[in-house]
Every structure is written in C-alpha cells, then in structure tokens.
Design goal:
single chain; alpha/beta; eight-stranded parallel β-sheet; two-stranded antiparallel ribbon; binds NADPH dihydro-nicotinamide-adenine-dinucleotide phosphate
Length: 294
C-alpha cells in the first residue's frame, strides 16, 4: 500500500478504513477485515463512539501495533487546553494505546476560536511529549487555517475534508498544498451524496455516467475510480465500509492509472454543493455533546 510522508516526516498509508456510522457491534469485524486484507490505517473519532472496538480489533488482529496507523479526532465539546489533553487520555484509553499516530481537531469552532486555538495548543503539547506522532485538523476552511497558522507553531500535518468529484473545495486544497498540509478526503466515494437526508434530489456520484464510463474502460468499479482519482492527486482517502468484499474492493486501487483526460473529466463534475454541515455554522450549542470517559 502506498504511503504519504507528512510534513514532519512521519509516513502514513495513503488509504485508510473510515468507521463513521459503523455501529460499535460491526466495528470489530470491519477493522479486522481491513487489517487481514492489508489495510494499515484506521480513521475513527471520539464522536463516533467506536474507538474501543477499533482498539480491540487492532489488539486481536496479531498485526504489530507499530505497523498500524491510528487516526482519531477530538470532538468540539472537549476543546480548551486541559479539556483536549483529557480528550487525548480518553481516546488513548479507549483505543488501548499509549500513543496515537495522528490526532486532529474534528471541526473549527468559528465563534469560539479561542477554544479551538487552545485545543490545538494541547495537540502541540502532546506532540512535544511524544504522545502523538502527528497533529492536524478537519473541516478547516481557509479563514480558519489562516487564523490557526497565525497563532500557533506547528503547521497541521493533515486537513481532513469532504472531497469527492461533486464537492472538491479547491480553494482549501490549494491553500493546504501551498503549506505542506496534506489533504485527506472524507466521503471519498461520495458517501454523503447517497446518505438519506442529503436532499430529495440526491444523486450518488458512484452512479454518475462520467464515473461509470471510466470504471468500465478500466474494468474497475466506480468506487475504485473515485479512490484512484484522490490518490493520484496526492490525497489520502479513508473510505468506509462494514462489508468485507467492499473493503477488499476499496483497497484494490493500486494496479491502474487514470489518464489526464479522465482526471479532468472527474474534476469537471464539481457541483459546488456541500454534503456535510457548513463549517462556519459549527457551534457548541448546535453540535456539542459530551464524550464519555474511558
Ligand atoms: P464514503 O465515501 O466512504 O462512503 C461510505 C458509503 O459507501 C457507505 O454507505 C458504504 O456502505 C458505501 N460503500 C463503501 N464501499 C463501497 C463500494 N465499494 N461500492 C459501493 N458502496 C460502497 O463516505 P463516509 O461519509 O463514510 O466517509 C468515509 C470516512 O471519512 C468516514 O467513515 C469517517 O472516517 C470519515 N468522515 C469524516 C468526517 C469529518 O467531519 N471529519 C465526516 C464524514 C466522514 P457499506 O458500509 O454498507 O459498505
């Protein structure tokens, strides 16, 4: 599996298994399947409620801990310097590890940015202390990143964002690329475009004729084409599935290459329509909820 080098020299497998909306009772089998199939990167979050099961699957897998890249996220309710240090303790204890490979802030809190900064300074402290190998952010827009970079010392290693052909956030991708912040795609196969609630007129990017035509030309699935589109443009991708055959399919994306014309055709599918919550509207009042103790 291809690896990417983060801005502090740490190497991260480009493709990881995502576990958002994977129920705790299906998380162990999904993570075990991914590890058996050769995936060595798992993306979870304090807010997903399944860190404990991710940790159990890793321990039971027999794969050495140091061969697995564990990424998790601090939820906004744990922002603040001491709160975020404690957030690390909760996640590490649930995962059953001493050290987390990549710890990121799940969202910016635009109206309480001081709390966001304090949380990030706690990540810097954890990095200095060797409790985490890399730190980063998620769903940070250019304004949030600019304010963060102005006020803190460590450039985030990663910005995890909604990125699929229907919503590419090119302004953020370019800003990140210029500052050695690695772009990591959530909903990389457009998951959010076919979740209930996306909208009555929702259309899955997996079923887009441009995607299915490219897939047919390569003898690959639409999901494989979308993951290849991300990886070939230097991004990390973290597709989610609870199904072993799909996890296997999603990992099998190294033996073909999209042409420049095909990449351009996929780039042209941009709709400007965000699937996830508007990052500017994230507040504790609307989205806060307590993360349980370990
Ligand atoms: P994805 O683009 O990974 O799509 C997941 C959906 O696609 C699921 O419904 C899954 O169903 C289905 N699926 C998986 N593989 C295939 C396949 N080969 N063919 C057809 N369907 C498939 O979207 P997600 O929104 O789950 O994002 C991925 C990960 O990104 C999350 O798990 C999480 O780790 C992270 N994330 C981060 C966010 C953030 O704010 N930082 C927000 C959202 C996600 P099934 O399980 O039944 O196979």
């Amino acid at each position: 599996m291809q690896t990417l080098t983060l801005n502090n020299g740490v190497r991260m497998p480009a493709l990881g298994l995502g576990v958002f909306q994977t129920p705790p009772d299906e998380t162990v089998s999904a993570v075990q399947a991914a590890l058996e199939l050769g995936c060595r990167h798992i993306d979870t979050a304090a807010a997903y409620g399944n860190e404990r099961e991710v940790g159990r699957a890793i321990r039971d897998s027999g794969v050495p801990r140091e061969d697995i890249f564990i990424e998790t996220k601090i939820w906004i309710s744990d922002y603040g310097y001491d709160e975020t240090l404690h957030g690390f303790d909760k996640s590490a204890a649930k995962l059953g590890v001493d050290r987390i490979d990549l710890l990121i802030l799940h969202q910016a809190l635009p109206t309480e940015f001081d709390k966001t900064l304090a949380a990030y300074r706690a990540l810097e402290k954890l990095l200095t202390d060797g409790k985490v190998r890399a730190i980063g952010v998620s769903n940070f827009m250019v304004d949030h990143l600019t304010a963060l970079l102005d006020a803190t010392d460590v450039v985030p290693a990663v910005n995890q964002l909604e990125i699929h052909p229907y919503f590419q956030q090119r302004d953020v991708l370019d800003f990140d690329n210029d500052r050695s912040i690695l772009n990591q795609a959530w909903s990389p196969i457009g998951g959010i475009t076919f979740y209930p609630g996306y909208g009555e007129d929702r259309k899955s990017v997996l079923a887009d004729p441009a995607v299915t035509a490219i897939a047919a030309a390569h003898g690959k699935s639409p999901a494989q084409v979308l993951l290849r589109w991300g990886i070939q443009q230097g991004r990390s991708v973290i597709p989610k599935s609870t199904k072993r055959h799909r996890i296997a399919e999603n990992i099998d994306v190294v033996d073909f290459e999209l042409s420049t014309d095909e990449l351009t055709a996929l780039d042209a599918l941009e709709t400007g329509r965000r699937g996830g919550p508007e990052p500017e509207n994230i507040t504790l009042a609307a989205y806060g909820r307590a993360i349980p103790e370990a």
